[in-house]
Amino acid sequence: MIATAETIEAPHVDWAGLSPLIAVFLGAIVVLLLGLSRSRSARETAVPLLSIATLAIAIGLSVGRWGERTDLIAGALRLDELTLILTILFCVAGIATVLLSWRHVAPRELAHGEYYALLLSSIAGMIVLVAAQNLVAVFVGLELLSIPLYVLCAAEMRRASSLESGLKYLVIGSVGSATVLYGLAFIYGATGSTDFGRIAEVLAGGDVASDVLLLTGVALTIAGMAFKASVAPFHQWTPDVYEGAPTPITAFMAVATKAAAFGVVLRLFDVALIDAALDWGPALAVLAAITIVVGNVGALGQSSLKRLLAYSSVAQAGYMLAGVVVATRLGLQATIFYIAVYLVMNLAAFAVIVARERETPLGDDISSLNGIGATRPALAWSMTISMLALAGFPATAGFIGKFYLIEAAVAGAYTWLAVFIVVGSMISLAYYLKVIAAIWMQPAEDDGTVVATEPVPLADGGETPLLAGGAEEATSARGQGELVGVAVVFAALTVILGIVPSPLLDVVRDAGAALGLL
Amino acid sequence: MTLHLSIMLWLPVAFAVLALVAPPRFAGRLALLGAALVLGYAVTYLVDFDSGSGVLQYVTDETWIAELGISYKLGLDGLNLLLVALTAILFFSCILWASLRQWDRPRLFYFHFLVAETAVLGALLAQDLALFVVFFDLMLVPFFFLTGMWGGARRVQATMKLVIYTLVGSLLMLTAAVATGVLAAAGPPELSFAFSDLAERPLAESSQNWIFLFFAAAFLVKMPAFPLHGWMPDGYRAMPLPVLAVFSGVLSKVAAYGFLRVCLPLFPDASDHFQTLLLLIAVASILYGSAMAFTTTEARLILGYSSVAQLGFITLGVFALNAQGAQGALLQSFNHGLVVAPALFIVALLAARASGSEDIRDMGGLGMRAPILATMFLIVAFATLALPGSANFAAEFYILLGVFTDHMVIAIVASTGVILAAIYALRLFITTMHNRTGARVESRELSLRDGLVLVPLVLAIIAIALYPQFALERSESTVAPPPTAAAELLPGGTPFAPLEETP
Amino acid sequence: MGEVLFFVAGIGAVAGAIGVVALRNPFYSVLALVSHLLCLAALFLLLRAEFVAAAQVVVYAGAVMVLYVFVVAYIGGQDEPLGPRAGRGLKVISVLFGVALFIELSIATLGSGLQLVDSPGAAVAASFGSPAEIGTLLLTKYLLVFELASFLLLIAVVGAVVLARRRGGLSAAEEQERYSAMDILRSSYTGTMAEAVGGPHSLPKKAGAAESAPADDPAPADDPAPAPADDPTPTTEPAPAGEPTSADDPATPEDQR
Asked: Which of A:380-439 have CB within 8 Å of C?
């Protein structure tokens, strides 16, 4: 069988449409090369700066493409508002991660160039994943996302728990990837195509929806994606990996990986498999309910903030899944909105954790926050707002997000799931408030004295002198500007989006319209 | 004169921010100024209010979040006017009380205090269900901090218990509120949570029932009513006094108001369906609260349990489902708020004279050298026990009258609560003011500083006792619709329809 | 003929798989795995998937298995058989799960009545799965995926290298030298002691000889003998520690003389 000498017509490449992705890839390579430089300042300053610049450029290019809806490169990727908003979110998370890593030990141990190049390629993988509209691209995107993260988890090579985290994530992640691949193969076998559009046509055309092959494939895909999004009962790796990984990477995984996993789930289920919604809807609904309960109950007994947030992220994944379950445009919008606000809330919290890890010898233990309400007001308020938002208090973005999800669930005839969401929120109060109580209501020292932060007026009109260390900005705060900045910016965003959510809601509405759901 | 409710609503937050950034020694004065301005506004509304028309006045209606159907709609009518006034009065008194004392971290203290005022006002003024839920949940946040940071012993545990207890109800209410809006908008009309829109789109009875139960859970926990009062003793013990005074005086009334504003007009079928259940809960609260109030010896808890009983009366009035009951409930809400705050202040003064103990067994003979203080306390106590002539008497009379027509047995059982109130109120007065002088008791007269807070409040009690019509006529024209709406849908006619025409 | 081959290859694959877990000697296990993979390749051939069959043989039975054999040869000997170290409960559970899975698969297989063995299979074009077809697809429909896969391999290599290269971890000194690809470009003495003391010409000398930058000066060689009497410093320190002294201040030995 000798191929005839016909010429192959290469697919059209829409460079403008691909530009955000290309920017990130190029940035990754340039950063990798720059990391080989012998100059210390180039490695430690120019590399992170260049990473930030890359991500900022990618954001700019994404904004420039807003409103376009086209297929890229023979239909492998889809450029629409859903892709773009998630791209922007990944880049924002990436910028925050770079800032959190700025003076962290992890990039020094792994070497700066490689660390940031891996981070950027993971982001590139996420962009591919959420834009993918054929099964092969989904898988490659998933691997491109995961493999750099395995390495980044193990970045602090001299700390055993970091290595353990990397190895655990590698093993579990590989199982997840293999499961997804298996499932995708079944879906291809059942429908005869890897293209989302074609799969949807086949499903709409016949009774393939009751095909055992297809259902097996869908089930395996759900299971594999559940590994990535840490949806119970596939979440067991989450606390260990989150705890062991360097904290900036934990933050990145918690927000960006989750967003990517939900991005692909949204596109896969709400585009390709939408006509099988009656089959996967109830299954996902049960998963969501289990996830909400397991995540929230698991978080109750945690004393490590990272483990606490890991379990909280499991629970939050359950909330987001509720928006997927209903398979309506409202649900889609609610999920995207929640992904965005979840990112904002969590990054503020992680910035505070990184800051306190550096300031205290207590690591990420909850006691590291004791009494910072008096000593570090900026961090304290950021953490407080973040926790209140995660718990879903009004005047924060978390409340609007939950409101939207509940609205979607009720409108999609999944009222019982909405009740699960609030039951989960109730349980979650116990541990979110524990964090806030540590900040404001625990003394910094064991002897119960409260450090005066302000001069106390005396009877004769004078003022008591300030205690040493009681100043608004403690000396240890010096050189943490970027962490405080990240915490404050994202906390402020949390509040702003809680009071004026309309701009984000408009953006989300565009994204929701992109998939053509009802 | 343009009277924007938004100005009154957001004034406290503006001053809260000012207090947060101002030098600490000015924080208290700034807070006081903010509260005074709000009080001024509230009094203006009280005078300016057109009691003849039964419609919403001073309406502000803006779209807040169009995608979610939430509007920023505020308004005053007979239901919330008195409670807004009560809120302004109590917050002013409590901030005055607090600003005459030293607080650790004063800027944060007044910040949270003023944020709380905005949240309470917001819940009262909101004319949109989602907005109501927002403010109702938001109320809790400042109290969480106020209790946890400035509270007494075991404050952290107490505040956690308080917040989790009450938020369990509030979150259920969130689902219920969303479901109300979504299910009501099942037809072509756009999603909206405004009360006026929701009232025009009645829900199916099956939906009404579970939604009503979720709302009722939220309100009953907040009150607190008998089986759901578990947070109350710890919370009352731990809260700093001015905080407790507003919490007890105002927040519980918001819950009662919620029944009148949300449940009765929006879920008329369910209100009727669960009427007996709610009446039984109310009676149980009255009996349990009264019984606990005359067995416990902690002065604060006596007032706490008496609140449970009083809130039982208010619930009783609400679920009489007629105009008398509702009017009585509103008047009683106003009265109880006005009475419980000075009572708590007096308890604090007494404790200060009894070496810091709030146990009434350690007190006694406190009235010996303090005739003015004793007089104040006596007036407050008489108001609590609803002595004929007090406004509380009028309110309880209205409530019992409302219930009596349809549920005679319940009314008779509930009326024993009036007698029990006399027992515990007088017991509190006698054991503290008279009796043998306690071992570590020093009888002192009311100081000018405390008199500044107490005397106006007591004068207000007397004023409302002399002229309760002032309150009644403002609520009269609005109170009628919600219970009527419920009554009209009763199967087999409206047994208490004639009574509505009597007043 | 096809059926006969199917069963031969199928039984071979199952037997190979059993062999992998059943054989105690790791080396034999690997060999059993190779035979299993070869049988699978035969099955792929029966499905007319020549490319996959070839890839199976070349990549798995070839390259990957060679790695396995190497690893086994390095770390596993006959004296260390792969034995189950699991507890009794785990054993029982694993057997239970295996039986359950077997029953499940049997039901699934028998339920389909084995018709698929006789059926012609899905209708596909004659060229489906041929190397030419796959090549065309990789350059057209899956062009992007093809490119991404190359980047993925690059990143995987970078990841593997960074994880493997500094097993000892970072030393306390932050500015310790690191190996990087740029090392190729620099002159070979950069960063060594030789750089500090003179130039590349000193490099050929070995260990002890390298200590003297002025290589012509015989003094360092004589140094150990007179030193005990005059100045204890050079002798009490070991030879390498003496390097800086002689390098920084070559005049010292001459003054002693």
From this structure: none
Specify the pLDDT at position C114: 62
Q: Which of A237, A253, A246 is nearest to A158 (CA)?
A: A246
Domains of chain C: 1-81 (1.20.120.1200), 121-151 (no CATH), 193-247 (no CATH)
State which residues form the domain around B180: 1-268
Residues B198 and B343 in one domain: no
Percent of residues, chain A, with pLDDT higher than 70 = 91
Identify the closest residue of chain A to B63 by CA–CA distance.
A502
Residue C176 has pLDDT above 90, yes or no: no
Q: Based on the domain organization, do B286 and B242 belong to the same domain?
A: no
* C214 close to C251: Cβ distance less than 8 angstroms: no
How many angstroms separate the CA of residue A336 from the nearest CA in chain C?
Answer: 26
For residues B321-326, average pLDDT: 85
Touching C (3+ Cβ pairs <8 A), the chains are A
Quick one: B34 and B75 in the same domain?
yes
Q: Smallest CA–CA separation between A502 and chain B, in Å?
A: 6
With both helix axes pointing from N to C terminus, report the angle between B323-353 and B78-99 in degrees, rounded to the nearest 10: 10
Mean pLDDT of chain A: 86
Find chains touching chain B: ≥3 CB pairs under 8 Å: A
Chain C residues within 8 Å of chain A (Cβ atoms)? 122, 127, 130, 132, 135-136, 139-145, 148-149, 151-152, 155-156, 158-160, 162-163, 166, 169-170, 174-175, 178, 180-182
Evaluate whether residue B496 is within a structural domain.
Answer: no
Tell me: do B320 and B229 sit in the same domain: no
Please, what is the Cα angle at B485 between B482 and B491, to 5 degrees?
140
Task: Clarify whether residues B257 and B283 are in a common domain.
Answer: no
**How distant, in Å, are the alpha carbons of A248, B77, B330, C65 from that of B395?**
61, 19, 8, 90
**Other CB atoms within 10 Å distance of the CB of residue A432:** 25
Domain end call among B235, B251, B268:
B268
Minimal CA–CA distance to A24: which of A198, A256, A338, A197?
Answer: A256
Evaluate whether residue B493 is within a structural domain: no
Contact A407 B178 (CB under 8 A): yes
Banded model confidence at residue A443, pLDDT cuts 50, 70, 90: confident
- Yes or no, beta carbons of C159 and A151 under 8 Å apart: yes
Torsion angles phi and psi, residue C84, rounded to 5: -70, 125
Q: What are phi and psi of B62, to 5 degrees?
A: -125, 155
One domain, residues B258 and B281: no
Q: In this complex, do A509 and B65 lie within 8 Å of one another by their Cβ atoms? A: no
The burial class, CB within 10 Å (0-12 / 13-18 / 19+), for A485 is middle
Q: Is there a contact between B149 and A419 if contact means CB atoms under 8 Å apart?
A: no
Report the pLDDT value the prediction gives residue A185, as an integer from 0 to 100: 92
Q: pLDDT of A420-438, one tens digit each? A: 998 899 889 889 999 999 8
What confidence category does residue C232 fall into, taking pLDDT thresholds of 50, 70 and 90? very low
Q: How far apart are CA B15 and CA B115, in angstroms?
A: 9
Task: Please indicate, yes or no, if residue B414 is contained in any of the structural domains.
Answer: yes
| Predicted local distance difference test score (pLDDT) of residue C231 | 43
Q: Is B382 inside any structural domain?
A: yes
What is the pLDDT, as a whole number, of residue C41?
A: 92
When pLDDT is averaged across residues C197-224 and rounded to a whole number, the result is: 44
A211 interfacial to chain C (CB closer than 8 Å) = no
Shared domain for B339 and B203, answered yes or no, is no
By Cβ distance, the residue of C152, C162, C182 closest to A110 is C162
Whether the complex's predicted ipTM surpasses the cut of 0.90: no
| Closest CA in chain A for residue B67 | A505
Check CB contact under 8 Å for A73 and C144.
yes
Strands A77-79 and B57-65: unpaired
pTM of the full structure: 0.84
Say whether both B232 and B362 belong to one domain: no
